[in-house]
Amino acid sequence: MQRSISIFGATGSVGSSTLDLIARSPDEFTVAALTAHSDVVALARIAIAHNARLAVIGDESRYAELKAALSGSGVEAAAGPDALLGAADLDADWTMASIVGCAGLAPTLAAIRHGRTVALANKESLVSAGALMMDAVTASGATLLPVDSEHNAIFQCLASGRIEDVARIILTASGGPFRTATIEEMRAVTPAQAVKHPNWSMGAKISVDSATMMNKGLELIEAYHLFPVGLDRLEIIVHPQSVIHSMVEYRDRSTLAQLGSPDMRVPIAHALAWPQRMASPCEPLNLAKIGRLDFEAPDPVRFPALALARAAIEAGGARPAILNAANEVAVAAFLEGRIGFLEIATIVEEILTRYSPAPPTSIDEIGAVDREAREHAISLLKVARID
Ligand code: NDP
Ligand code: MG
């Protein structure tokens, strides 16, 4: 029986990898909704190629363009934030949440509230609204499948034991392009250097997050919500080859690891076929060629984002949402050449210090915290005259 698939953020790196897998098994999948933010040309192209029922562009002003591009194709066109949420109304068997940033929160939550099977790549939504999102999963009976490679690895390792028996979850980190750089070298880093990840090919925002290691901080918070073992059982280790995607140690001191080529189609294929398996076109692991696997402790001095993220989730309340919002603004400013690489973490720390709202108790309140933290971060860029 064919399964229908919707993809939020279909024009991005994760969205494209998902479509690549779907295109290889045309008898097994049909495409319901595909969404993008502003890339009308790519959205229309993939919607037609995959015979989607609906294509939604988030930026309302691009509606006419999308409608024209889809004319005669049989694909319905829609635009704007409400249409984005409406895409979750389509009866999809499996939904990929791969919008980048907290902008993905509302659509992801809409799919969860429908009780759907949701493959989660959009980690920022879980960082900002983790408890409320997990509550929504429980309330609706939705199935949340982790796609972030580390969390997908942990999910696979947890299949052979009980969560009560977990002693430690060890998230691996590549260390990014500046793993061995000096602080002086990091100060001079350009956006082009920061987005050039040594192992993975990803969107610009997550590539910068990997370079600052904020990505691993966000993933620590993501793991905290997905796998309730407690923060003191979550550890991070740098593993430059990105072959082991994470590990679970049980209390008998047996440690399970999931290995694979650094290709997002491996965890996406796992989520797409779950609870079964499907063939993927990914490279088989050639361990003899890889030769060795290295590990080292992360450096808290050159990568302060890790401690900021751990402190944010320890404190709870609005802190993780503030951390995420400030980071999104700072990363965008860095990519635009307005601030230096090391200033990303400085700005996040500064906003966490100066903005301390009451703990949010609803998604609307999370939205308000997210907006206010962004405003603080933007005004900080102005005050510092670095805009
Ligand atoms: P990309 O930047 O490549 O793609 C982002 C997608 O989201 C695009 O389709 C984009 O549309 C859409 N989008 C951007 N802003 C908005 C918005 N405001 N409203 C609605 N849609 C929007 O990102 P990635 O694919 O790299 O990452 C997606 C998510 O997956 C992130 O949360 C990331 O952390 C996570 N992830 C990514 C991995 C990877 O390998 N890339 C690995 C693990 C997790 P448009 O093209 O029109 O701008
Ligand atoms: Mg990851």
Write up what this structure looks like.
The protein has 387 residues and is of the alpha/beta class. The protein has three domains: 3-146, Rossmann fold (3-Layer(aba) Sandwich); 162-260 and 272-311, no CATH class; 316-387, RNA polymerase sigma factor, region 2, helix turn helix motif (Rna Polymerase Sigma Factor, Chain: A, Orthogonal Bundle). Helix content is 45%, strand content 15%. It has 17 helices and eleven strands. Helix 6 packs antiparallel against helix 15 (319-335). The longest helix is centred in the last third of the chain and has 21 residues, at 363-383. The mean pLDDT is 97. The structure holds NADPH dihydro-nicotinamide-adenine-dinucleotide phosphate and magnesium ion. Residues 148-150, 219 line the site of magnesium ion. NADPH dihydro-nicotinamide-adenine-dinucleotide phosphate binds next to helix 1, helix 6 and helix 10.
Features:
alpha/beta, 17 helices, 387 residues, Rna Polymerase Sigma Factor, Chain: A, 3 domains, 4-stranded mixed beta sheet, binds magnesium ion, single chain, Rossmann fold, binds NADPH dihydro-nicotinamide-adenine-dinucleotide phosphate
